[in-house]
């Protein structure tokens, strides 16, 4: 007894999704076939439609259905600040703060030598080009404060500074409303190091 | 700034997968679009191909590309025993033991009133019909030992016995090589209850 080949292929295909191993791929396949054929058909179509319609914004590299995304096309935003993030979700998080009026650049990843992700696998060259347009005055690095995000920020800072650009990094510290008792020691240490004069 | 609609649709569509919430759906969408377009195209195709080629075996209800699956078509297997399992994966687990030579019936689910899954949502009627073919002598219930699997076994046992069929349940007990010290109390209690005369 073997699993029918089209079922095997579906289970195999589902394993390309991040965080999905053989067990969940198999559970997902049975769910799609047995419980939600409409959802399955819709998923297949949504994948194909997204691949057909989405491309990278010519300026900021985020996903867009147009050549230039809404933000880059917005004349009201300042051309002098360029905020670098890892992924489009990070851009959305910053937009939600309503605290930033400049433009963005989305790397679509982070440097991670251990996973074999180097400068060629993120939009590194395009960022250098974009930041050197003569209008950008400050590059704000807003990559994550993970090991990879920090390494990426460090590398970008060196490269961009070498090109004469002003580079800054978003701050680490206690969250708004945060209590010293409930924050992890390294964040607290960093909040001390990054203290501001009053 | 909004997420492009085709990207939103893809994230939405991925949420039909079991265990996938908004956050992982978004991570999956970016992964497919950014890191694995070949995998994405293949996934869309595999879903459509599986839905087009797979159907339920006319006898045992498992997924098959033919009208009757390999096992049901195998003349060497005994027609007298019918082993009832929840899902095709369970059937494969039992096949791996090489300890069973009868046929199967796959419910494609379990009764779970709390989730709104009743007898109409699993292949209950088909099982009754299948088990009443005049050849089946014993129905072996091999649903899981979860609350839902147990309830399903209980309900099936009553219904099948009422039709004059011999019904059995696979045993609970210590695993082969299992030590009393490392087994949970309810399994141990059950191993005592289900002790065999020697
Ligand atoms: Zn843009
Ligand atoms: Zn069959």
From TrEMBL, chains A, B:
The keyword Glycoprotein does not apply. Residues 80-175 form the Toprim domain. SMART domains: TOPRIM (SM00493). Keywords: DNA damage, DNA recombination, DNA repair, Metal-binding, Zinc, Zinc-finger. InterPro entries: DNA_Rcmb_RecR, Rcmb_RecR, Rcmb_RecR_Znf, TOPRIM_dom, TOPRIM_RecR. It comes from the Bacteria. The keyword Calcium does not apply. HAMAP family: RecR (MF_00017). May play a role in DNA repair. It seems to be involved in an RecBC-independent recombinational process of DNA repair. It may act with RecF and RecO. This is Recombination protein RecR. It comes from Jeongeupia chitinilytica. The lineage of its organism: Bacteria, Pseudomonadati, Pseudomonadota, Betaproteobacteria, Neisseriales.
